[in-house]
Amino acid sequence: MNELKQKIGLGVGVALVLAWCLLPVAWILSLSFKSQAAVSNGSDPGFLPLDSFAGLENYRAVWEDDQFRRAIINSIGISLIATVLSVMIATLAAYAIARLEFKGKKMVLTTALAIAMFPVVSLVSPLFDLWRTIGLYDTWPGLILPYMSFTLPLAIWTLSAFFREIPWEMEQAAQVDGATSWQAFRKVIVPLAAPGVFTAAILTFFFAWNDFVFGITLTSTEAARPIPAALSFFVGPDPFQRPASLLAAAAVVATIPIVLIVLFFQRKIVAGLTSGAVKG
Amino acid sequence: MTSVVATPQTDAGDVPPEVSERVRHENRLGQRLVAPAVVVMLIVTAFPILRALYLSFYSYSLTAPDERELIGFSNYVTALTDQLFWRDIGVTVLYMVVTVAIELVIGFAFALVMHRVIFARGLIRTSILIPYGIITVVSGFAWQFAFTYQNGFVNGWLPFIDADFNWFGDTVPAVIAIMVSEIWKTTPFMSLLLLAGLAQVSEDMVEAAKVDGATWWQRMWKVVIPNMRAAIMVAVLFRALDAYRIFDNIFVMTAGAEGTESISFLTYRQSIEQFQLGMGSALAVLLFLSVLLVAFTIVKLFRVDLAQARGE
């Protein structure tokens, strides 16, 4: 009896968690299928598109919008480059932190922590000024650089937690067994370290993809404007009426990469989030 | 060969020479490996914040860049004596305290469900990562549209709310709407950190308490929560500092109207929208200092031990 009650309770809990996570996603998805006319005159309120189903019309409009297409390219390019560079640099640093004793190690960890807590907005005016002076304003590198700075702490923390768990003696063991040091590194250490590096890369990518403050302040045209900034400036043909269903379609498109990454790498993300912050 | 990187004499005294050579080598290698990371982290933060400090003593507007003038602490005096600044600090602290408190409770409940559940583990973890990964701006839009009376579903679903109630017409409901978006998006992060903490609590201890006749409530308060204190504190610290810097949701949902503006938003508005770089810089410095103060207060108040939480 007691066990049954527990099972029911757990089932209700699971249902609540799923509803919490998916309901707003379902809502934006449903909104993206409503016709723009119905949304602007409010003729079809409610959760589902009942008599205002517009098919893929909004998605077609988003795809034909030049600014939005550019924004997707910018976001993918900038986030990927920032992720690769940041993870490479963080791997070096995390290796040193996990394996070597050196002066200033504490300082590095403290700096990383301080940067992680840094109020991004307080950099907006000096960076805006500086970037315009040195010509980085409204360019890809102008966003890649700040993204790297702000993802490095997360990447370093996650990676050093991972690296600490690697049995490094195995490298020597392989060498004793006749492997060259390069072979030992490639066949033993790389496979052990790869999951950690990969996890750090996913978390870094999420951060870069999500950034808004730098996106709106350090860009002014579609030359470098990323998706979140483009979404917020996306007004459509009538500036006095935000095209809710169009925006919803654009938002869905911007969410697809996140959903794909989550679907494929769910385990790795959870491991990364929990190992970096709390370790037993 | 002489090396520039000298080991301090206190160390050299009790370390044999050949070890000291190795220590020195390791020292140098370690410093070289972390150098790029440190440089990149500081380029975009240390220099600009020092520049902000410098500019904050000037009257400097982008609309009239040639009339830059040294005015000492005037910007600070103006900011600190303005009611707007204190109102925005108050609103920001309100966002932080309310969202983190609610997230802690809901996040803990979610963590318990995820910890206990045996079926559909993958499905739940995948679902919970979607709000975590989704762009904050998208979350802001989704909730803004959900709360509007023309198209949203919130008014229809809440029985005690009129169908034409305007959530964005007054401070309190607008703040609530912003908080809902913030809480929805960040609770998963909180629950995953708490889940990691829960995994560290020994099952035997909980079982023992159960055998001794402790109720579920007692087991939670006396056994589980004290044993995952470090995880809770780290989660609270990270989330609180994040919530204190709230910006995206406000920008998208109200653009700071109806007194929903946070201190981050005020700083942004002064520097980017009004082109007041001098005043904006002063606010940036004040924002920076206030974050430090919040971090310090939380660490002291809750005695957060980051080293212990990392298992060092």
Q: What does this protein structure show overall?
A:
The complex is a heterodimer of chains A (280) and B (312). With 280 residues, chain A is mostly helical. Chain A has twelve helices and no strands. Chain A has helices at residues 2-31, 36-41, 57-64, 66-99, 105-116, 124-134, 140-165, 169-176, 181-210, 213-217, 227-233, 244-277. The longest helix of chain A has 34 residues, at 66-99. Chain A is globular, with a radius of gyration of 23 Å. Chain B is mostly helical and 312 residues long. Chain B has two domains: 23-73; 81-302, MetI-like (MetI-like fold), CATH 1.10.3720. In chain B, 73% of the residues lie in helices and 4% in strands. A two-stranded antiparallel ribbon of chain B has the order 1-2. In chain B, strand 1 (58-61) and strand 2 form a beta hairpin. In chain B, helix 6 (121-133) crosses helix 9 and helix 9 packs antiparallel against helix 12 (229-244). Chain B is globular, with a radius of gyration of 25 Å. The two termini of chain B are 37 Å apart. Mean pLDDT of chain B is 84; it is low at 1-13. Chains A and B meet through helix 1, helix 4, helix 5, helix 6 and helix 7 of A and helix 2, helix 3, helix 5, helix 6 and helix 7 of B.
Percent range for helical residues of chain B? Answer: over 70%
User: How do the strands line up in the largest sheet of chain B?
Assistant: 1-2
Regarding quaternary structure, what we see is: heterodimer
Largest sheet of chain A: none
CATH architecture title of the largest domain in chain B = Orthogonal Bundle
Order of helices and strands of chain B: HHHEEHHHHHHHHHHHHH
Mean pLDDT across the residues of chain A is: 84
Shape of chain B: globular
Number of H/I helices of chain B: 16
User: Residue ranges of chain B: pLDDT <50 for 5 or more in a row?
Assistant: 1-13
CATH topology of the largest domain in chain B: MetI-like fold
Helix content of chain A: over 70%
The span between the termini of chain B is 37 Å
Structural domain tally of chain B: 2
What's the overall average pLDDT of chain B, rounded?
84
Subcellular location (chain B): Cell membrane
Protein name (chain B): Multiple sugar transport system permease protein
Keywords (chain B): Cell membrane, Membrane, Sugar transport, Transmembrane, Transmembrane helix, Transport
Transmembrane segments (chain B): 33-54, 93-114, 126-145, 282-302
